[in-house]
């Protein structure tokens, strides 16, 4: 091989450097594997998303401002999980349906 040093001392130095670099790479891989395993465990412990949620806006007080499907990313921070009937009742009472997840379609209000 022409890209390697021609003498033994420099070859040994290169070997040492490569071994140290390989150790660093393996440690970085181990860290990422631990992080990934921790993420998988958090996902496994996370409760399932509710079927429907009521969104209470920014303040969280008063009446709900929107109905969302349980997995909708457009829901605000202050929400309450509800069952199908409570979601239907909220829509009948005039609570806005989310324009993103369109719960009124899944709840049978629109085709």
List the helices and strands and how they pair.
Layout: H1 8-45, E1 52-55, E2 66-69, E3 79-82, H2 84-92, E4 96-97, H3 103-106
Parallel strand pairs: 2-4
Antiparallel strand pairs: 1-2, 1-3
List keywords for this structure.
111 residues, 46% helix, 2 domains, 3 helices, four-stranded mixed beta sheet, alpha+beta
Question: How would you describe what is shown here?
Answer:
There is one protein chain. With 111 residues, the protein is α+β, with helices and mostly antiparallel strands. It has two domains: 1-46; 52-106, no CATH class. Helices cover 46% and strands 13% of the residues. It contains three helices and four strands; from the N terminus they run αβββαβα. It has helices at 8-45, 84-92, 103-106, and strands spanning 52-55, 66-69, 79-82, 96-97. It has a four-stranded mixed β-sheet. The model has no long low-confidence stretch (mean pLDDT 91).
Q: Tell me roughly what share of residues is in helical segments.
A: 40-55%
Order of helices and strands: HEEEHEH
Identify the overall geometry.
rod-shaped
How many domains, in number, for the residues? 2
Number of strands: 4
Low-confidence runs: none
Alpha-beta classification: alpha+beta
Spatial order of the strands forming the largest sheet: 3-1-2-4
Distance between the termini: 71 Å
Sheet having the most strands: 4 strands, mixed
What count of helical segments does DSSP give? 3
Strand content: 5-15%
Mean pLDDT over all positions: 91
What is the C-alpha radius of gyration, as a whole number of Å? 28 Å
């Amino acid at each position: 091989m022409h890209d390697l040093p021609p003498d033994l001392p420099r070859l040994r130095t290169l070997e040492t450097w490569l071994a140290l670099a390989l150790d660093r790479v393996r440690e970085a891989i181990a860290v990422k594997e631990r992080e990934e395993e921790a993420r998988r465990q958090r996902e496994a412990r996370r409760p399932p998303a509710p079927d429907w949620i009521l969104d209470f806006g920014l303040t969280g007080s008063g009446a709900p401002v929107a109905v969302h499907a349980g997995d909708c990313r457009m829901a605000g921070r202050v929400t309450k999980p509800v069952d199908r009937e409570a979601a239907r009742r909220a829509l009948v009472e005039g609570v806005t349906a989310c324009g993103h997840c369109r719960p009124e379609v899944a709840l049978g209000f629109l085709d």
